[in-house]
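# step 3/5: fold
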Amino acid sequence: MKVNVGTIDRVLRITSGVIIITFTALGMISPWGWLAIGLIISGVIRNCTLYSLLGINTCKR
């Protein structure tokens, strides 16, 4: 698997994923918020499938 998620993008994905999941667990937003686990996973493994399909790479070269 190729790395295509840079540092800033990674931090934003993990942070927003944790915030959305917290709001979902507290019942503040709909259960669809659990899909934010995908944001956390893509931030941790540093690979985004959509970025791969579109040819986007946010890593510094």
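# step 4/5: annotate
The helical segments are 7-25, 37-45, 49-54.
# step 5/5: archive (pending)
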